[in-house]
Amino acid sequence: MIKTILGAFKPFRLLSLVMTYLMGAGLVKYVRGLSGWSLLIQGGIFLLLLSLSLELLCLLYRLGEPKNWAEGMQLREIKLTRSGIAAIIATLLTVATSIFIHWIGEGVLWQGLGFLFLTLFALCIIYYLSQTIAILKPFHLLIEVLLFVVIPPALAFFLYSDDLHPYLTLVVISLVPAYLANRLLHGLENFNHDQKYEVDTLVMRIGWENAMIIHNVLILLTYFLVGLSAVWGLHWFIIWPVFLSLPIGLLEIWLMERVRGGMKPLWGVMRFAAGSVFFISVYLIGLAFWIR
């Protein structure tokens, strides 16, 4: 049961959520300074609890179909596992709700932040439904990007600020392609499995070779948007460290072109390279905000 539950948690998504959240907090510190750490910690815990609950809800749905059961699992074990998952979800959501109610009582919520929470809750519902309704599955990756890359830094920022800073928009837009490239790589790595079991994924829809081309374009687009953000007003000292990861990005593109040419994929190296493009960028931008 424990192995099944832990398998629902996706380290890449959770790490993306935490790092982009801290990057958004760094922007607050850079723009106006943090007025205490309590609110920041509460916001991080709230997001983690909500995302973990969401992943467990999706797992609970998948375990309702025998084709998703692990080999050797019996009906009794499945029922016990689902009951345990339901109990964990209830606990996590209770704590998250308590934090939210506390914010209401403390007057933390303002109009813009309230709208952000409505958007967050709507995205959570659509994220879950995209696992269960076929017509919504093509939008699953888009919702995932919004939940794990866009919402976290926005929440960290609006917990302390009541106005939209252009740096927030510029930074988030620059990071989205790198995240998408990583998710496409994951789909490519699991292509044979998804094809065998008829799993409906974005890579299955657009095709093996098209996914590789788009993956490479997204890597290049990341650096293009980071550079373009300087033209749009983002200070150069904030973004220039991102280009330190450019050789890794070019390595990832070269490795993908090898696969297109028919050579054996080096999935481990490619995961590391693609992940480095995203996480190094988030880390260095966030660090620039925090130390200034």
TrEMBL record:
List UniProt keywords, sorted A-Z.
Membrane, Transmembrane, Transmembrane helix
Q: Which residues form the signal peptide?
A: none
Could you confirm whether the keyword Ribonucleoprotein appears in this record? no
Regions that span the bilayer: 12-31, 37-63, 84-104, 110-129, 141-161, 167-185, 213-232, 238-256, 268-291
Protein name (Swiss-Prot/TrEMBL) = Prenyltransferase
Please indicate which superkingdom the organism of origin belongs to: Bacteria
Q: Does the keyword Membrane apply?
A: yes
